[in-house]
Amino acid sequence: MSALTLHTTAQDLLFREARTANKFTSEPVTDEQLQAVYDLVKYAPTAYNQSPLRVVLVRSDEARERLVGLMDEGNRPKTASAPLVAILAADNEFHEELPALLPHFPQAKDVLFADRTVREESAHLNATLQSAYFILGIRAAGLAAGPMTGFDFPGVQKEFLDDDHTPLMVVNIGRPGPDAWFPRSPRLAYEEVVTVA
């Protein structure tokens, strides 16, 4: 009997067989699929339920062209050909939503997060955590994700965001195409990671 209660098929879908895709088919990614992904991953935890992740879906040809020009050279073909591209960003003004998101402690907005530097640090950590949830949600939808941090961060912020939003990663999304995967790299063993004190 397995120590994990999640079915083996789901374990494989989310982790063991899931890979970072580098090539995609032309099959479109629908708004309904992305809505279903969000409706799943929105329940995953963040500190004080702050939920600072914001997602910009790059759908138009004009926006795609602008984004491709800001990607590192090796990432340009992938971003140009993916059915859908998402820019994941941290909202540094997330505290404005806290009275609704944290109704039992609405004063957290001013008590804990009045300082911009504190907000930026918390938003970066928690939106990065939510980015991982987002990738798992993409996999749960039967799609593949190609997350990348090889791009012009200030350029993406200027072109697609504003001073209150910090880009974290760009994620190509779609059905994996032929030869979509690099060989899987090794992983550390349990005893290399876990120390008992």
Number of E strands: 4
The overall pLDDT, averaged over residues, is 96
Query: How would a textbook summarize the main sheet?
Result: 4 strands, antiparallel
Which class do the helix and strand fractions yield?
A: alpha+beta
Gross morphology is: globular
Percent of residues in beta strands: 5-15%
Give Rg in angstroms.
18 Å
As residue ranges, the low-confidence spans are: none
Can you count the helices? 9
Q: Give, in spatial order, the strands making up the sheet with the most strands.
A: 1-2-4-3
The span between the termini is 28 Å
Q: Into which percent range does the helicity of residues fall?
A: 40-55%
Strand and helix order = HHEHHEHHHEHEH
Walk me through what this model shows.
The chain has 197 residues and is an alpha+beta fold. Helix content is 40%, strand content 15%. The chain has a 4-stranded antiparallel sheet with strand order 1-2-4-3. α1 crosses α7. The chain starts with 7 loop residues before the first helix and ends with a helix.
